[in-house]
Design brief:
This protein is mainly α. The protein has helices at 3-8, 34-57, 65-98, and strands at 13-15, 27-29. Helix content is 65%, strand content 6%. This is Short-chain dehydrogenase.
Length: 99
């Protein structure tokens, strides 16, 4: 095993980073097929994109600090999950290139 390969080796299950707790309960299966990981990431990122696009053209945008904080939280959770999934996908693709 080369030093580069050793750095890319991942545990089978990786906790998502958006949920801060001592005992992780939401995990990514790093050995899932790459297309499944990519689809899961794309789904989350598209959901946030569609929500934000709809809000930007809506005549009745949500008002109030609490509503905006809740919307921001939902968007950040979905985007963080998507980024975590894309990170695993990238690492897996790099592993394939090195083999």
């Amino acid at each position: 095993m080369t030093p580069i390969t050793r750095e890319l080796t991942m545990n089978r299950y990786m906790p998502i980073t958006g949920h801060d707790c001592n005992i992780p309960s939401l995990l990514i299966d790093t050995q899932a097929p790459i297309d499944v990981l990519h689809d899961a990431a794309a789904y989350r990122i598209r959901a946030v994109t569609q929500l934000l696009e709809n809000l930007s053209v809506s005549d009745e945008a949500p008002k109030g600090t609490v509503v905006l904080q809740e919307l921001s939280l939902v968007c950040s959770i979905l985007l963080r999950d998507g980024c975590d999934l894309m990170d695993v996908t990238t690492r897996r693709m790099q592993e394939q290139v090195l083999q």
